[in-house]
Amino acid sequence: MKLLIHDLKSDVFQSAFPSLPEDTKITSNESTIHHCIGCFGCWVKTPSKCSIRDKYGNMGEYLSKCNELIIVSNCRYGGFSPFVKSVLDRSISYVHPYFRFINGEMHHKRRYDNKINLHVHFYGEITEDEKNTANKLVKANSINLDLDSYDVSFYKVTKEMEGIILCK
Amino acid sequence: MQIALINGSPKYKNSASEVILEDLEECLKKNPNIKVTHFSFLKPQIDQKDIKSLFSCNCWVFAFPLYVDGIPSHLLNCMIQLEKYIGAHPNVPKTIHVYGISNSGFHEGKQNIIAIEILKNWCIKSGLIWGQGLGVGAGGMLAGLKKVPLGHGPKKNLGKAFEPFVSNIVHRKSEEIIVTSANFPRLAYKIAAEFGWRKQIKANGLKRKDIFRKCN
């Protein structure tokens, strides 16, 4: 399965990506998302599921079933937009609370065995410093979520994304 | 000088950010010219009253937890609100210095560097003056160390890191990021944290094995 998380308005999304592969699960800003409150319920109360049961409470499960993760996000200060960041903050049930060491750094253990390739498409007026931060951020995400590979692309306006291939 | 201490944790109480800001306040209060105002950004929106109070301060110090290598989404919303406010009110003071403290559950303080960079990028985009960032590792144990004095025991390194950081705030100086971690062995921290997760899962009426539960 391909998992696409995006923050585009529906008309912009439709014109940029009129057709997507059938096995694509789309997570978009269609209803109010509650922000993560740091309760760790997804690890110790309802393990593997976010304890906040809105439309975005099953992100860990979606991640466990995908092999391509595509993120289309407005770039905010070198990071994701608030909506996309909320989705990612609400996705930590994908990993296990226990720790392991990778290249001398502490990270979380895997909960699942699936392999994921991450493709991030940032759009907006982005400074060089922000691009540097964004590249580092996506690399760090790929280490912490133990992803197989990652790539990052930047676009000044959403129109530039029309016709692009979301998964390289 | 008026300093705003902004707690960016979404937790109402017992957050590591709260402990960090309490310790920071103790250090700042040693200077009689410093007055501190507390703000708590618990939600994705800041009250208009708080926004006005913020702009009466000379320095803003953010303390927040590291979420997925970045800034928690609710705090990011607050930052965007502040950037928009500054854009819409050209007369607000642009001499405000911004400092940031990010704490992570990982042992290494350096894992906070990207989140601090995001805060710095926001500061520059908003037209404010960037001061300094402090990345704190092993934040998971800080909430339990409220009564441990800064500079002692597991908070020895934090005390050391606070010396230049506090001095830079007081003198409104800009410096490179500092990273620090608890004076507590990394392996022992891992063991203690994992014991803590098991204790919590049992307290929630689940079994130890449930911590490994999968959706599919």
From TrEMBL, chain A:
InterPro entries: Flavoprotein-like_sf (IPR029039). SUPFAM superfamilies: Flavoproteins. It comes from the Bacteria. This is Flavodoxin family protein. It comes from Anaeromicropila herbilytica.
From TrEMBL, chain B:
SUPFAM superfamilies: Flavoproteins (SSF52218). This is NADPH-dependent FMN reductase-like domain-containing protein. It comes from Anaeromicropila herbilytica.
